[in-house]
Amino acid sequence: MKLGRIVGTVVSTRKDEKIEGLKLYLVRDLGLDMTEKDTFVVAADALGAGLHEVILYAQGSSARQTRVTDARPIDAVVMAIVDELEVGGKALYTKNPTQGEG
Amino acid sequence: MKLGRIVGTVVSTRKDEKIEGLKLYLVRDLGLDMTEKDTFVVAADALGAGLHEVILYAQGSSARQTRVTDARPIDAVVMAIVDELEVGGKALYTKNPTQGEG
Amino acid sequence: MKLGRIVGTVVSTRKDEKIEGLKLYLVRDLGLDMTEKDTFVVAADALGAGLHEVILYAQGSSARQTRVTDARPIDAVVMAIVDELEVGGKALYTKNPTQGEG
Amino acid sequence: MKLGRIVGTVVSTRKDEKIEGLKLYLVRDLGLDMTEKDTFVVAADALGAGLHEVILYAQGSSARQTRVTDARPIDAVVMAIVDELEVGGKALYTKNPTQGEG
Amino acid sequence: MKLGRIVGTVVSTRKDEKIEGLKLYLVRDLGLDMTEKDTFVVAADALGAGLHEVILYAQGSSARQTRVTDARPIDAVVMAIVDELEVGGKALYTKNPTQGEG
Lengths: 102, 102, 102, 102, 102
What we know:
Five copies of one chain form a homopentamer.
Chain A: E1 2-11, E2 24-30, E3 36-45, E4 54-59, E5 76-81, E6 84-87, E7 90-94
Parallel strand pairs in A: 3-5
Antiparallel strand pairs in A: 1-2, 1-4, 2-3, 4-5, 6-7
């Protein structure tokens, strides 16, 4: 999985019928220092995650293993919201309990 | 999924029998500032998308999950036309209603 | 799919039994200006393509969706010979009818 | 597979139901000189590996081939703890028998 | 497939039960000029290939299509030993018949 932050949304009316009803997020990749990188993906939301949240996304055929993405043309899915990252015994990131706006 | 713009078409007479009838587009990757990057893919069109449109494409086995690409040797498919990208509460991109030429 | 040019061949006597009989080509990636890049793959030939031809290759599990690569340990396959690339209303590349040597 | 070192852990309460119970590690990629690179992944642990251990991880659909990751939205899995790397007849790396803290 | 040279071996006692008995090689990627690049993978050996040999490896789900890797958490497999690479009508590489040490 990759570590990312949800930074935006994608609106699409004309799309493959199999992706109807899926929420699509712009997700920027994060470095180990939690800075946003230039790379990003568009990922389906399997969780009800919110803008600005730090999340994990899975790619490839594994992105189709959630209930909402099964058998759909989706190659990236938000499958976990990160509460805490711990590196070297220290919290690299801790989620603000009030963070996230669905 | 990746964000791209359809910039051209590929014509091929000699090709695997399983891709007969598919429209193949040249798609340039877009950055978060909507500029075209040097990287590109050739993607099958599952939608009737048009030249110059901003689209999403799915890759890998997920590219075979649309009705038109099922069981074909296709590793990239245009599966959504983007109407709007919203980042930080602002529209990063809004589709011109008259845009796109099939 | 990726755009490439067939630049060479690979000869192998000791190989997995499932790839017996497949022709393996060295394929260099091409940029949008049709120059050869430093990156390349070895791809199986599903078409009877020839040296120097500009082709498309599919990767990953999609590379196993042609009749000749089905269920084989092949992750890249030449599945279309390019006749023409059109970008911005102009032919970026047109195949010379006499090009290609099987 | 890729060579990496387990450098941290990811805590997540809200996640896809199918990944409940999996331990998720931050894994930094290692170069052939055993230095940590800037790239990293989050990988599920199929082994009971510990912090600081040098491991191999598998990606893509292959990451779902262990007993603990089967049919889950997991695209990277720790599937081997490295005891020794030998390059050019010399041990590039030898695991300290007391290394690793579950 | 990618072109590489087997440069080392990986020893692992604690590993997923499904990879028991597989030989794991360190494989460095080769450029078109046959120089070793900085990138490498760990690949299972499906052939009885030997150290220093120039080989092809397949990645992703295709790496599970050999008899020895079927249904295992393996994402790279050595599936051909290269005898000769021919580019531009010249042999870029020819295998020394005495090369390779199992």
